[in-house]
Write a structure and sequence with these properties.
mainly alpha; 5 helices
Length: about 100
């Protein structure tokens, strides 16, 4: 069901969203930029000014992604360890739903 929503959005957007007249005019006249779809990215790497910004931005973004991944892993493992520890001790684990884990296991 979840894949149907984006597919429906693509169909509806393709049906009702039209290209701007200025773009269509440039297309008819053949004045649209030519080249690969990756050309803007190549230009970022070639230019010394933008290359530095690209590298710094990529490092900052990767630091954030790695940090969030690590926090998710540590919190998940910590919660699992707490639940397992309380089950071994015979005490109910503390949870948001106040469920008795001894009955669940």
């Amino acid at each position: 069901m979840s894949a149907r929503v984006p597919a429906l959005m693509v169909v509806l957007i393709g049906k009702y969203l039209r290209e701007p007249q200025s773009w269509l005019k440039l297309k008819e006249e053949g004045r649209l930029p030519q080249g690969s779809i990756l050309a803007p990215y190549r230009n970022l790497v070639v230019s010394t000014r933008w290359r530095r910004n690209l590298i710094v931005g990529a490092l900052i973004a990767s630091t954030g992604v790695i940090g969030l991944w690590a926090i998710g892993e540590i919190c998940g493992r910590s919660a699992a360890a707490r639940v397992q520890g309380s089950l071994r001790e015979g005490e109910p684990a503390q949870s948001a739903g106040a469920q008795d884990w001894n009955d669940a296991w």
